[in-house]
Amino acid sequence: MKLEGIRPSNFGGVPLLIAILAFVFMIGGIELFSWWMWIIGWVLIFASWGISAEIKNDTLILRYVFGLLPIKLKAEDIEEILVLNRLEKGVLLRYFPGIGAAYMGVLIYALYRYLTFPDNLLPGYYAGALGLIIISSSMLISLAIPIGKTHHKLLTAVVVFIASAFLLWLKVRAVELIPMVVVLVMITLWTVYDIDTQDYIVLKTRKGRYLLTSNAPRDKVEKAIKAIMEVLSDD
Question: Which keywords has UniProt assigned to this entry (predicted)?
């Protein structure tokens, strides 16, 4: 049975390792001025996010890497289920410090590299580092501020954008970069808003912690939770 509206995230387990590998390729792309490493990094990021979750033969199956990597969790593997939503105002960073550390590492590197870039590079190199700064900052905002405090997160994201725009102005003062800045603003605000308007199911298992996300109606989320609980009760 497919759990409708439920999607696994890359916050733990093997998917987290894939996400970290993606960051390594992105950083390598900046250091080696290699566009193909940058592209591989983005492919790995998309691959690290799950595409579906289903229950089959009393086993919860989370599918990652475009469906090619199934992670199977049997009833005896699942130790605890926790639901986080806008009412509970949970903090994701508390449950998944690994992904927080990964994004913090990316942010520190990107800031350092951006500030040490020479002034005569093509704008694309500055945009790459700035993109990492904005993406990692947006994720850290979403992870650290409790779910449901959307206005606080969006306000913080705006502050991050203003700081990023100032950093860009320090390096490149070109009108043609305005569309890129607008795109980065939209990505930042959408990322923060989207993460804050979802429900989350935290699975504590013997194989590590996994996070299921959903922006589906509450009844579908409750149905998915009930199905997972039935797997546990059948053990």
Answer: Membrane, Transmembrane, Transmembrane helix
- Please give the residue range of the domain that contains residue 122: 87-196
User: β-pairing, 208-214 with 199-205?
Assistant: antiparallel
Total count of residues recorded for the chain: 235
Judge if 107 and 191 occupy the same domain. yes
Residues 6+ apart with CB under 8 A from 117: 125, 126, 129, 171
pTM above 0.85, yes or no: no
Neighbours of 29 (CB within 10 A): 20
pLDDT by position in tens, the chain (length 235): 777 778 888 888 889 999 999 999 988 888 887 889 989 998 999 999 988 888 888 788 899 999 889 998 887 888 888 877 654 555 788 888 889 999 999 999 988 888 888 777 777 777 778 778 888 888 888 888 877 677 777 777 777 777 777 776 666 665 666 677 677 777 777 777 777 777 788 888 888 888 888 776 666 667 777 777 776 665 5
Q: Does a structural domain hold residue 203?
A: no
